[in-house]
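Project channel, design review

CF: Before we commit to the Rhizobium tubonense constructs, I'd like one complete example in the thread so the newer folks can see what an input/output pair looks like. Taking Sugar transferase.
RD: sounds good, go ahead.
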Amino acid sequence: MLSAFRGIAQEEQDAAEPLVSVRHNRSKRLFDIVFAGAALLFLSPALLLIALALLIVDGRPLIYRHTRIGHGGRQFRCLKFRSMRKDGDKRLAELFAREPEREQEWLAVRKLNNDPRVHTLGKFLRMTSADELPQLINVLRGEMSIVGPRPIVHEELERYGPHVHYYLSMTPGVTGLWQVERRCNTSYEQRVQFDVDYYHTRSFSTDMHILWKTVGVVLLARNEKHLTK
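CF: and here is what came back for Sugar transferase:
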């Protein structure tokens, strides 16, 4: 099935190539390399502190690797600091058994409020999006971009329906429209529409706008967390 999706993506990408210049793609890639490299260098002390804290709180492994679908349907291992407990799957199954409505919540948006799998440090990492910092390595590898659609798993491709070629013709991003538009309050259909909208409006200025909004979203999430304590 994945090969079929790849074929669709290639046909649509070839047809749409005049809409996005080769120069734009090259400049975007250059920006990704410079930004990711500089960020990793600047944030290296913080990355080491997070790794040490994770080692103390829940031991190894420190990095969570999950297979995602990238540009053209190619699979890659998306990197994150591990924010979930080692027995997370068991805890999730127990939650669904006790509260079936939570399983419906998960199936609808692939997110859970008060996820029982997430440990205390993991909640902080997710609140600040620091758990996604290892994805800068994915960016340097060319598997991800700084800005783009949220990387999805294979099972989610079918949920894109006729819009799947938009996702497959782009490189997944560390941040994107979905991440800056109140991600917990959006349906899956809205998330797909964000990817379609980004496809039609992608440009350097759009990426800079999304990056700027990302900073605001992270700071707002931290402020809201403090206000609710």
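RD: helpful, thanks. The longest helix spans residues 22-58.
CF: The CA atoms of residues 7 and 151 lie 19 Å apart.
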